[in-house]
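Lab meeting minutes (informal)
Scribe: AK
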Amino acid sequence: MGASMTMQKGTNVPVPAPAVRVELGWRASPGAPDVDASALLLVSGKVRSDADFVFYNQPAHRSGAVRHEGKQTTGGAVTDTLAVDFARMEPTVDRVVVAASADGGTFGRVTGLYVRIVDPANGSEIARFESADATVETAFILGELYLRQGAWKFRAVGQGYDTGLAGLATDFGISVDEPRQAPPSQRSPAAPQPSARPAAPRTAPTPPPAPPVVQAVRLTKVTLTKEAPSVSLSKQGGTSGALRVNLNWEVRKQFKGWGAKLGRAVAMHADLDLDLCALYELTDGSKGVVQALGNAFGSLRQPPYIHLDGDDRTGALSTGENLTVNLDHKDRLRRVLIFVTVYEGARSFADLHATVTLQPQNGAAIDFSLDECTVPSTVCALALITRNGGDLTVQREARYLVPQRGVSPQRTIDAAYGWGMNWTPGRK
């Protein structure tokens, strides 16, 4: 399908691609709530367990079939993306519900909300549905991918809920930890308390109660901003287990002109290599760096209790760069500075849109986006984790640094944060 038409509610289209990108988009505006994408993998209309819910606190399904890839902001346009790989879909899964939830307001205050299905192989748009009639809803089923006679299709749904993501999830059999209740004015007094009722259509039957499960999903998250840049890990429940730090990015393709200029741009971004790194200082005074350079990947079970998962050159095409901190040994950590360098493929972070997510094994996700880069920076301080009594505080840095001629990115970040290490040239 070269140019897809905007779908009407209730219509469907074939999805011929073996994998798709599901992109939710909207326009950022003052006073509007943040929007989050999520997906539910269904078998005969219900989830099999809470693991079939993919969202910001549970970003990948165990099968690998559905992944939450995170947000990007370009100018006033915001997108939140899910990746769906039909080849990895378990045979019993016959439907993937694509939902949106509003954090801090109703969808009546969100402008330009849409969902589109894109073929990642060539960037072509397979389907697009624009939602324009929202009022008091705080969650929406925008559409669904479903299996019919061996082939996948996409249906535009547009069903709203006034009980938020918790209400929508409960409807499909998810058990929610501490559900956020909607204000009384938005709920029917006759509605049973444990289950959520769709705002439209009003005649939807009340679903059976969710089966008991061992651990309910937690729907809270924290987004760090310039105005509120720091958070305590213990307040988010992140006091033990693995803290996964993920950096994901995409290149904004702005090719003005053709010929040699276009060729250079494509070549530059095809081999883009960003490296996620960490400077650490332990309570015994020892200092060091975890990075791909010099194969200094670290260790989770012995000092520095930080491990770099590998070196990924694909950014948003895969799971980005990942680094893990062992919070079971948090008392040994004095401070950890997470940073990223441009190893090759670009002269600066300009035109790169990156999202940083810190996901504690137990507790709410902490995320933030990087600002637009306007300086010739090849190294960016992302987050500073500092020991504060028995707790760790995470602070958003999002600070672009410009190395002086002949000075390495690592030495530049060391000088900016007073780490005081001796550096020698390294390679990977």
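Next up, CB showed the second protein from the same session:
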Amino acid sequence: MKKLFLVLFGLAVAGELLAMLTDFGPLHLICKPLIVLALGCYYRRAAPRPAALVLAALALSWLGDVLLLFQDGNALFFIGGLLAFLSAHGSYIGAYRGHQWAGPGLPAGRRALLALPIIGAGVALLTALYDHLGPLRLPVLGYAAVLVLMVLGALFRYGRTTPASFAWVTAGAGLFMVSDSVLALNKFLAPLPAAGFWIMLTYSTAQLCIVKGLLAHQPPGAMPA
């Protein structure tokens, strides 16, 4: 059954990407809400003990997707979507902590080296957007801060989970940041070519990578000797 949900996820992503390329609104309305819904069902089937925070992150992402479907008609839908995804990132941060082994983790110096490029990218993006955010300046700044923390949370799992889990989750978190950056640049700075296609491609891939990565985590006792 879990494979069926993964196939449904793939079909929903393909339909959404086609809708973005052809600007076919009805297909967009059908496929976009199905993406995370199918992925959430897959996670529930694939995880021996589904984590509440992972389910919350997916449910909040689904809510954000639905709210953003109607953002063109009312700015409140955009703000609602922003808050939903902010909460989803917070849930993922908590989920990362629940999917890592106990211990000190990386030394402070190595954490700083890993953090600098991510923080720098976030600061550069906000610098480019700052004068264009208008009344959404504070919400966007807050969202960006939580997004950066989500990516850092993925990076700081290094050495505290399986290599596969670290790689999948880190790739997903990075793609999430790319997706949100393209969305922000397209919305606030200037329209980008095929922006909707690239936003949804990176976003759906990000969600899949994070879920696959969290499923790949194993307790220390389950690791092969």
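CB comment: The chain has one domain: 2-220.
No objections, moving on.
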